[in-house]
Amino acid sequence: MKKLLALAFLLLALSAFSEGLTYNDLLKNRLENDSLYIQIKNNYEIARNTYKSTMLNAYLFTDLSTGNVNLRFNSDKTKSGFSLEPSASISSPMLNNLGVTISVPYSNMDKGNLTKKGVSANLFFDIYSQSRNKFNLEIDSAKYNLELAERNLKIKEELIEKKLLNEIKNIFSEYSIFLDGKMKLTMANLKYRQVLAQGYSKNSPKLSTAKFSLMRSERELKEKEFVFFNSFDDFLNSFKIEIKRNELEDFFTKLALSIPEGKIPELDKLTEENFNSVINADREFKNKLKQNKIKRNIFSAKANVKFNTMRRENKLASKNTKTKNIESGLSFNFPGCKFYTGAIFNLEPKNQLNPSFQFMFSINPIQIYNHVLLSKTIKLSEENEAIALVDKKIKFKKELKQILMKAEKLKWQENLYSQELALYEKNAVDHNRLFKRGIINELENKQAQLEYQQAVLRKASADIESLIFNIEINENFIMINSK
Fold it and tell me: In whole angstroms, what is the distance from residue 91 CA to residue 62 CA?
C-alpha cells in the first residue's frame, strides 16, 4: 500500500512538474543533477592534488633504504655471515638540491667474531644549476591550472546554465522548423480550398497543382515531425519527464515565455589585458622563454662533503681498528665537457693525514656542436613564438570587433522581436475572436496562432543568445561581471 502511495505521489509530482514547466524549473533540475558539475568538481580536485604534489616534490625529497643486504651461507661456518647498509636521505630541490644522506654499514662474519660497524654522512648541494628554475616553472604551471579550476568551480552554475541554454536553443530551432512545416501545410490547405471554392474541376491543372502542393506539404511535415520528436524525446529524457503530444504547444509556449531577458552589459572595459586568450598566450610565451633558458644553460656546479667512520673488530685476534676520513668534491658540467676534482683526508689513525686527490676531465665535441645547433634552433623558435604572439593580439582585436558587433546585433534582435511578438500576439487574439464569431475559418485562425508561436520562439531564442553571450563574456574575460 505504501509503495502504491509513493508511486502515485511520484507520478503526481512529475505531472505537476511537467504542467508548470518553466525555464527556472529546468535550470534547477540541471543544477541538481547535471554531470557537468561533477566533472568541474573532479577537475578542481585533480588540479589541487597536482599542485600539492608538485609543491611537495619541489621542496622535499626523502628516501629510506635497506641498501644492499648480503646473506652468505657456507658449510664452513667461518665463511658464513651477512652485511647490510641501511641509509636515509633528505634533500630539497628548491634549495639548490641541498641535502644529506646518512648510511650505517654493518657486517657480521664468523659467528660474530669479525664485525664491521660504520657511519657515513654525505652533505651535497648545487653551487649553480637550473634545478630551482625548473621546479619554479612546474609550480607556476600547476598553480595556474589550479586557479583555472577554481574559477570554473566558482562559475559552475553559469557553465551548467550555458549548457542548458544551448540545449533549449537547439530544441527551439527544431520545433521552429516543425512549426514552419505546419505553417506550410496550413497555407497549402488554404490554397487548395480557395481553388476548390473558385469552382475548378477535379481534372483542371490549377486544382491538381494545389493538390500536389498540399500532398508535398503533408509529406514534408511528416519528415520534420519524425526528426523533431526524436530530438524532443532525448531532451525530455535528460530531465526524466514526459510531455503528451496534445500538451506540446502549451509546453513550448510556457517555456519560451519564461526565458529571462538577456540584457547586454556595457562592454567598454573589454581589453586584451583582461582577455583570457591573450593572457594565456602571454603566459605561454614567457614560460617558453624560461624553458628555453633552462635547455640552453646546461652549466652546473655541484659540491659534496662526506664524513666516514668505520670500526673493525676481530675478537679471535683481539684486534680492533678504527678509520675516519673526510671526502670532498667539486663537479662541473659544461656543454660537452665534464670536470671533477676531489680530495680525501684521513682523520684516524692520528698523525696520518695522508691526503689523496682526484681529477677527471672529459670532452665530447659532438655534444658541443649539438649545443651550438640547439642554441640556434631555440633562437629561431623564440622568433616564431614572438610572431605568433603578435598575431594572436591582432586576432584579438578582430575578435573584439566581432564581439561588439554581435552585442549590437543582439540588442537589435531583442528590440525587434519584442515589438514583433506584441503584434503577433494581438493578431492571434483578434483572429481567435473572429473565429469564435464565425467570421473566419479554422485554417485562417490556425495560421495566426502558428505565427504567434513562431514569434514567441524567435523572442525566446534571441533572449537565449543574449544569455549565452553574457556567460561567454564572463567566461572569457577576467573581472567582468556580465550577468
Answer: 7
